[in-house]
Amino acid sequence: MVARALFSTGHPVLAQIVPARFCNLSCAYCNEYDKVSKPVPLEEMYRRIDHLGSLGTAMIGISGGEPLTHPDLDDVIRRIRKTGAIAGMITNGYLLNVERIERLNRAGLDHMQISIDNVNPDEISKKSLKVLDKKLEMLAQYAEFHVNINSVVGGGIRNPNDALVIGRRALALGFESTIGIIHDGDGQLKPLKPEEARVFFEMTNRRKTNYAQFDKFQTAIAEGRANDWRCRAGARYLYICEDGLVHYCSQQRGYPGVPIAEYTREDVKREFLTAKSCAPNCTIGCVHRISYIDHWRAPQTTTVSPGPGGLVQIQPAD
């Protein structure tokens, strides 16, 4: 996948697709869910996935809301694999059990990420190690797919040291362990407090494998500094919301705002060369990591500035 991405810039590397905006939890810092939306019909999910396949998308990640609430999730995963893409999922883990894990194995899931915010549940987040530890033990015993446990700092999480406890538990179970920094409602930087920064650097200084190797961008975020990088959202990374529209990311909705069924390779090429004014203070890790593949090439020649109501202003880049 990486070799193909290095060879050609004309296809998305990662697309995140939302089959269900509904979530069974209500984390205080999250703006990516509701309590009323119906799941996207399976045939429509098939159409969206097939079009991503026609664009040459290398990885398709399922997010939400909570993906495990979709009644046809196994079929969604099978369809992703049928396109030749790697199938991933971000979940809160609450709905996992042995039978569900074995179904995910059979469907062909390649990768699962679970974000755990604290050791004990509180008013900010119920995604706690206390609640989910038995689920993690099930995954360690039965999952045939890769598992990454992501802990977080910032955003009102009460005890930053919880991230260290969560990270150690993940490694003890044989999982990947990463850490994220909670952003504001626009995906922008919220500088860490001293204790949060200490925990962050202790986590990032551990031995790194897989995805955790591509977290250099977070150092500047933790120190309250801007990053100098080329965001490839809309090209190498696509976010497809529950309505089937392509956005830069979950926090910058409204542009391009094109239905995935109408998104073309020309759109991919245009956005690859388009700088985003929100990039310097962006904390969206998946976009940073995917864009890192192309950090050394193709200076961007136009810029866009997401504005009120999702509007944009386009002008020549400096």
The dominant shape is globular
Q: Report the total helices.
A: 10
Could you describe the largest sheet, including whether it forms a barrel? Answer: 9 strands, mixed
Strand content: 15-25%
Number of strands: 12
Name the average pLDDT. 88
> What's the SSE pattern?
HEHEHEHEHEHEHHEEEHEHEE
Report the structural category. Answer: alpha/beta
Low-confidence stretches: 309-314
Distance between the termini: 32 Å
Based on CA atoms alone, the radius of gyration comes out at 19 Å
Strand order of the largest sheet: 6-5-4-3-2-1-7-8-9
State the helicity in percent bands. 25-40%
Reconstruct the topology from this structure:
Blueprint: H1 2-7, E1 14-20, H2 42-54, E2 59-64, H3 73-82, E3 86-91, H4 98-107, E4 111-115, H5 129-142, E5 146-153, H6 162-172, E6 176-181, H7 194-204, H8 217-222, E7 237-240, E8 245-247, E9 256-259, H9 265-272, E10 274-276, H10 285-291, E11 302-306, E12 312-316
Summarize the structure.
With 318 residues, this protein is α/β, with parallel strands linked by helices. It has helices at residues 2-7, 42-54, 73-82, 98-107, 129-142, 162-172, 194-204, 217-222, 265-272, 285-291; strands at residues 14-20, 59-64, 86-91, 111-115, 146-153, 176-181, 237-240, 245-247, 256-259, 274-276, 302-306, 312-316. Helix 2 runs parallel beside helix 3.
Structure in words:
The protein has 318 residues and is α/β, with parallel strands linked by helices. Helix content is 30%, strand content 19%. The strands form 2 sheets. Strands 6-5-4-3-2-1-7-8-9 form a 9-stranded mixed sheet, with helices on both faces. A 3-stranded mixed sheet has the order 10-11-12. Helix 3 runs parallel beside helix 4 (98-107). Mean pLDDT is 88; it is low at 309-314.
